[in-house]
């Protein structure tokens, strides 16, 4: 499930597809918010089971907290609970609230992560 707020854009309620601008929202899995995101542009296509955010995207884990990924573009494959981040990907992780970064990396061209940002794979 995806929760989205946007400044402008158009989403078709029936097809659950469309394009929005200046967006922010949350990715949910099993009814729990797993990650929050911000993006200048988001395209949703329910029939293909994917949401694409681009032109500079930031995704931050909520459950568990501590991981942030930024990229030129992310694609969320809803049925697989996977996010593919592409283009100038940077990531950081903090062990606890207010803690210093314990892991940091980038730039990387492509990273695959689960929706909760718990597992990050570099091809």
Would you tell me the overall average pLDDT? 89
Number of helices: 0
Protein structure class: mainly beta
What gross morphology would you assign? globular
Strand order of the largest sheet: 1-2-3-4-5-6-7-8
Q: How many β-strand stretches?
A: 8
User: Could you give the distance between the termini?
Assistant: 26 Å
Low-confidence stretches: none
How is this structure best described in words?
This protein has strands at 2-12, 17-29, 32-45, 50-62, 65-77, 82-94, 101-114, 120-121. It has 123 residues and is an all-beta fold. The protein has no helices and eight strands. Strand 1 (2-12) and strand 2 form a beta hairpin.
Features of the shown structure:
8-stranded antiparallel sheet, globular, 123 residues, 8 strands, mainly beta
What secondary-structure arrangement, pairings included, does this model have?
Blueprint: E1 2-12, E2 17-29, E3 32-45, E4 50-62, E5 65-77, E6 82-94, E7 101-114, E8 120-121
Antiparallel strand pairs: 1-2, 2-3, 3-4, 4-5, 5-6, 6-7, 7-8
Short description:
The protein is 0% helix and 76% strand.
